[in-house]
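Morning F.,

Quick status update on the modeling queue. The single chain you submitted on Monday has been processed. Sequence for confirmation:
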Amino acid sequence: MQLTVIGCWGAYPKVNEASTGYLLEYDGFRLLIDCGSAVLSKLQQFVKPTMIDACIISHYHTDHIADIGVLQHALMIDSIITGSEKQLPIYGHTLDAGEFAKLTYKQYTQGVAYSEGRESNIGPFTVSFLRTNHPVPCYAMRFEAGGKVLIFTADSAYQDSFIRFAKDADLLLSECNFYEDMDGENAGHMNSRDVGTIAKKANVKQTVLTHLPQFRDVETLVKEVKKYYNGPVQLAKLGLQIDV
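Structure tokens below.
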């Protein structure tokens, strides 16, 4: 699997960057994970929107879905110009029926439901889900392909269930929206200590910090995680590519 970071900022993007969005590729299949603000613009540095084979959404907060509408219009315009009849499946949960319905747009995109306790097969990926601790229904995801495992925490405060969910994963892509001296629980987010604890107890091979805060020096987050976890840690950034 190859992961490319398209956007990594929480709540809103920093100047000339994007909020949450990641491109996961394996065996020629391209899966877009979340589609936040400015993701479509930054995505085009790597692939055309029409080259995406599927999209999956962790939850319906704006910083994770803001560019779904413009993605749909990009596909519509391409269809008008080229005559393409390709329909993009967009996977999401149904605990917010109104938002799930928006994933379907005419003949260009089709919402596909996923749920905890049931694996979804998306191209070459087997995806399982874990409900997170967040103000709205949100799901962490475990992607498996080619004998490798990638964990995406999505948005969540700390919960012990992450440890089993991420056990022995090759890559932990974890939100880290707060610094060690801050408590993110009420906001539904983790701090660096939380991430380091999960990474260590789950015995993951490497960790990438994402959903980053716009304040202070984010390099501090890496130093703080390393107090609790001895494996490789780095910050997500636009264009970062990792072979899992």
